[in-house]
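User: Batch of two.

Assistant: Item 1 of 2:
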Amino acid sequence: MFGKSITLFKLFGFEVKIDISWLVIALLITWTLAKGSFPHYYQGFQNSTYWIMGILGALGLFIAIIFHELSHSLVAQKFGIPMKGITLFIFGGVAEMTEEPPSPKAEFFMAIAGPISSIILGLGLFGVRLLGEGIGWSKPVLGVISYLALINLILAGFNLLPAFPLDGGRMLRSVLWGMKDNLRWATRIASSIGSAFGIALILFGVLSVFMGNLIGGVWWVLIGMFMRGASQMSYQQLLVRRSLEGEKVRRFMVSDPVSVSPSISVEDLVEDYIYKYHFKMFPVVEDGKLLGCVTLNQVKEIPREERHRQTIRGLAKSCTKENTVGPDEDAMKVLAIMNKAKSSRLMVVEGDKLLGVIALKDMLEFLSLKVDLED
């Protein structure tokens, strides 16, 4: 879902990160508030005042989203759901779970915590505004507080829509899950509703464009595309997790992998192995012991005229956690390692012995067959 993110700080043990895309939306929000909303509702201020109000409004929205997602994370922690952290991205924020909730009850309370926190914050800010009005706070300050109070209530209302993976969609899934005790069925139904809701937003956005609201229409289209993609991806992730969870590496690994001797030249590696097998990484083995591995990127650094002189022994690097895995590791952990290392093959090792190689394509073939059979 995310691109490059930056860790800002830790809060109650959770990492708070910001996706680069959120910087774009923060600038757009600031500009919209400073040049559109605040001048329209609060006339007569200096241009610099509107920009300060816009910056404070965007900053307040940033804090409100963190507060919303932190509520999810704290409740999830109470139910024993592992949380990676909170990431703000172009369409808001998300509390990152590493596992599905253990029960419908845990899902429901975790989901509803976010909207409730936003409602409480919104009503609280309305109370602060009334208090500030009574003691004579300036109109720019009251304007920013009013905006933040309203935006929190809107945030709560939007998230309560029964469209997965919004909070309301998760609440719907928890109810369906409790009715049939079938998480997969509940996710499929909730995701279908979320996908349909995304399509409806796209159509509404297209209609808005034809009616002359170009910027608003484009945003509705983008939000609809995100909603549809996120709902479909959530169901696919559940299928992958449910199909591979508990499966061990031994089940998928090739126990007689192609390996290279440290004594051959780089040129022989290219001609006899890379061009023949089309792999980007080869284990280097001598007398049954794993010495390391050699990758396509390492080979590319060697000039063509030098490849016949240099042996693999001088090129091979020690194996790391990014390209090795144990035979009894869970398949889901393997997928996480592959994703992080951007690699489709890992070596299966035990001590200094190479037991085999596990490839992404073999896991995906198993996944496809299992999903087809269970459907």
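Item 2 of 2:
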Amino acid sequence: MSLPRKNEYYTYSDYCLWDETGRWELIEGIPYAMSPAPSTRHQEISGGLHRELAAFLKGKACKVFHAPFDVRLNAAGEDDTVVQPDLVVICDRSKIDDRGCKGAPDMIIEIISPSSARHDRFIKFQLYQKFGVREYWIVDPDTNTVAAHVLKNDVYTTRVYGDTDAIPVNALSDYTIDLREIFNE
């Protein structure tokens, strides 16, 4: 199979057959082309967050992964939704396999760009809430802010943090990330 066509329903099995000429996400059977390589600023922020999380998680049960990494949110159902967040934290190791994550990770971080902002703020927000991702951060490199969405009673509550704040990681007990270390590298 070459590339997906619009207006057709696909599953993860189809997704695995697509040509590797680009990166794709599959949301409830609909393919979405991902943007080309992220900006240098995006990569700096992603790298800083990954380093902070990896250092904290060393020797612990949870693991952090960075894109490209397939997260199959409804692998137990239709298996028609696979996303590639910038960063994911998974504490239930039974969800990790050779192809990525099966089910909702504990935490997802998306670093937005002008081309992905709407998709990350609306479509993925609803998707992650629906599938029970405990914590979802939307990082905005233009404003140096993080919108932290924490799942309570199946609904996200949101708090926005600035570049001088320390942000608690609710999915990981007793841990905060100093955003000065992330935004001011």
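The mean pLDDT is 92.
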